[in-house]
Design goal:
alpha+beta, 3 helices, four-stranded antiparallel sheet, extended, 9 strands, three-stranded antiparallel sheet
């Protein structure tokens, strides 16, 4: 029996409610990199006051300690059932902590996985 997931993707229509940038409340940039990832954002209010006032995450936790970095590793930690646990330094820290206790069998750590997603269809 053929899956109808492709059919549902083909028939879904994206609804654009407002394409006027003057009405945007926030602009968000995601850098989903092969090795490291990060993000930045700016609100309309901040932009009007100072266009260069861009917010970025400068503190990631590595080993439970705050670390100054604009990016975090492109690593994701999932439970064996596919549910999300953590991303970035937090994912790696949690996995290796559990591995040290011998309790990592129900976890899956994926590192540098971006290119494995290329040309993959979800569904």
């Amino acid at each position: 029996m053929a899956s109808n997931s492709q059919e549902s993707i083909d028939t879904e229509k994206e609804t654009v409610t407002d394409t006027n940038p003057e009405n945007y409340v926030f602009v968000v940039a995601l850098d989903f990199g092969t090795t490291y990832s990060g993000y930045a954002f700016n609100s309309r209010t901040d932009f009007n006051e100072n266009p260069l006032k861009i917010q970025i995450n400068q503190e990631w936790k590595a080993g439970g300690v705050p670390m100054l970095s604009w990016k975090t590793p492109t690593s994701i930690l999932l439970k064996n059932d596919g549910s999300f646990v953590a991303f970035g330094y937090e994912a790696e820290d949690k996995f290796y902590l559990e591995m040290g206790k011998g309790e990592h069998e129900n976890l899956m750590l994926f590192r540098r996985f971006k290119m494995k997603l290329h040309n993959k269809m979800v569904g």
